[in-house]
């Protein structure tokens, strides 16, 4: 029995020694390391883009408002109708304008009659001057001969002066009357013009994109205030998307930049566009925050003209207007293109504190960390490095500081730090962003098997 126990003890000792030996050789207890996915650094074409959302509008759209106030008695077109420049869109009944026109015409006739009356009096007044002059000359001769008294001569002199004054007054009446006629005619012309403005004329060719009024409604003329917007006429053949670009991205956008536009009404379809206008003044929108107030988001309006060739197939299917004003859209504005640059997966680039493996912000409180993350999105802070973790032959990783350039949705340009063929860790995100350190052991697996449970 004792001999049997002895052999069991010897076997256990041999087994323990063997286990230690296998462990020392790395056969047992081997640290497989963190499961990660890697991707090789390679030469690529990178197109940097700015994403923004907005709405579809006609590039040219004019608002039509009446010049005069009154009731709409005629409405000749409906929303969606095509119109030609000069067409009568509607008519407004403004009774006060008719009254003013009639009064102006009557004033012209009255002033003309007054002038004719003054002119008719002038021959008689001229004859009166001639008679008074003869009487004056005769009385003057008699006074010299001392036949009449000086008082009788003075009467003849006064009669002459009065006749001359009446004649001169008649001349002035004619001049004033002619001026009054011209003034009355000007008022009549204005009244005729105002009356003519009751016809609403199309200012350009186009399509009625919006009809805001109905027959029988009363409208306010633009000569009194802003005026009632009756309708809009648009050139539906030239469509644009107006998007809001943030102040951080607007310096990247240039006139002539290409864009790929998605319109919600056409799923999985991208239309080509070109930037035609960049607003110089900003639009500010208030957004709610988790704090005690609100923060303002500063955006700039960017106009992107849709190229007709990119949607001509839709129009050819009988869809007269493939795009309607107000449709929601988003655009990727392609701001910079670089061909044949060294690029890595964007998920491989993370940040660490300068000269260490410490994750930036890991010892901060929540508010400080949130602020640091916001800074990281806008750009590196002075105490941070951009780094990647490069896979080594012994399945460890090496932290490498990099300098980056432009980026697209998946890859980022590497200006310094890497070369083509380097394998960099790209996933999982939490491992790359917080856990990896210089020298960490890893196990490379396909990205789709990262989170598979052990069997």
Q: In words, what does this structure look like?
A:
Helix content is 32%, strand content 35%. It is of the alpha+beta class and 455 residues long. It has 4 domains: 34-46 and 342-359 and 381-449, conserved putative lor/sdh protein from methanococcus maripaludis s2 fold; 51-60 and 234-284 and 298-337, Elongation Factor Tu (Ef-tu), domain 3 (Beta Barrel), CATH 2.40.30.170; 66-92 and 199-229, RNA polymerase II/Efflux pump adaptor protein, barrel-sandwich hybrid domain (OB fold (Dihydrolipoamide Acetyltransferase, E2P)); 94-197, Helix Hairpins (Orthogonal Bundle), CATH 1.10.287. Strands 2-11-14-13-12-15 form a 6-stranded antiparallel beta barrel. A 4-stranded antiparallel beta sheet has the order 3-10-8-5, with no helix packed on it. A 4-stranded antiparallel beta sheet has the order 7-6-4-9, with no helix packed on it. A hairpin with a 6-residue loop joins strand 12 (258-263) and strand 13 (270-288). Helix 2 packs antiparallel against helix 3 (150-196). The protein is rod-shaped and about 195 Å long. The relative contact order is 0.17. The model is unreliable at 24-29 and 364-378 (pLDDT under 50).
């Amino acid at each position: 029995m004792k001999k049997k126990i002895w052999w069991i003890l010897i076997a256990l000792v041999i087994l323990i020694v063997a286990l230690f030996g296998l462990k020392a050789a790395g056969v047992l207890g081997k640290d497989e390391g963190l499961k990660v996915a890697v991707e090789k650094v390679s030469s690529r074409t990178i197109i940097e883009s700015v994403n923004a959302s907005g709405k579809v509008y006609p590039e040219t759209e004019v608002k039509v408002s009446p010049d005069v106030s009154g009731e709409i008695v005629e409405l000749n077109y409906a929303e969606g109708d095509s119109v030609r420049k000069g067409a009568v869109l509607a008519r407004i009944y403004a009774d006060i304008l008719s009254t003013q026109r009639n009064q102006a015409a009557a004033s012209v006739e009255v002033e003309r009659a007054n002038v004719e009356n003054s002119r008719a009096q002038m021959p008689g007044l001229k004859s009166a001057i001639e008679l008074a002059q003869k009487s004056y000359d005769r009385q003057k001769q008699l006074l010299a001969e001392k036949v009449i008294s000086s008082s009788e001569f003075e009467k003849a002199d006064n009669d002459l002066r009065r006749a001359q004054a009446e004649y001169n007054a008649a001349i002035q009446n004619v001049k004033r009357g002619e001026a009054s006629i011209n003034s009355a005619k000007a008022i009549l012309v204005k009244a005729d013009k105002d009356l003519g403005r009751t016809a609403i004329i199309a200012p350009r060719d186009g399509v009625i994109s919006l009809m805001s009024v109905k027959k029988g409604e009363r409208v306010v003329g633009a000569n009194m205030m802003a005026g009632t917007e009756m309708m809009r006429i648009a050139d539906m053949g030239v469509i644009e998307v107006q998007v809001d670009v943030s102040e951080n991205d607007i310096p990247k956008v240039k006139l002539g930049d290409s864009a790929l536009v998605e319109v919600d009404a056409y799923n999985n379809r991208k239309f080509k566009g070109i930037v035609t206008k960049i607003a110089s003044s900003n639009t500010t929108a208030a957004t709610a925050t988790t704090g005690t107030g609100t923060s303002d988001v500063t955006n700039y309006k960017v106009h992107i003209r849709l190229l007709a060739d990119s949607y001509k197939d839709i129009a050819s299917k009988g869809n007269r207007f493939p795009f309607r004003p107000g449709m929601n859209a988003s655009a990727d504005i392609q701001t910079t293109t670089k061909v044949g640059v060294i690029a890595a997966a964007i998920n491989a680039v993370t940040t660490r504190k300068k000269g260490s493996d410490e994750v930036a912000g890991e010892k901060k409180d929540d508010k400080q960390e949130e602020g640091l993350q916001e800074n990281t999105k806008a750009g590196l802070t002075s105490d941070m490095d951009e780094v990647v973790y490069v896979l080594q032959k012994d399945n460890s990783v090496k932290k490498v500081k990099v300098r980056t350039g432009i980026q697209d949705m998946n890859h980022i340009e590497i200006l310094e730090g890497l070369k083509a063929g380097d394998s960099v860790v790209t996933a999982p995100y939490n491992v790359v962003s917080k856990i990896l350190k210089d020298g960490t052991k890893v196990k490379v697996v396909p990205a789709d098997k990262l989170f598979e449970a052990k069997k």
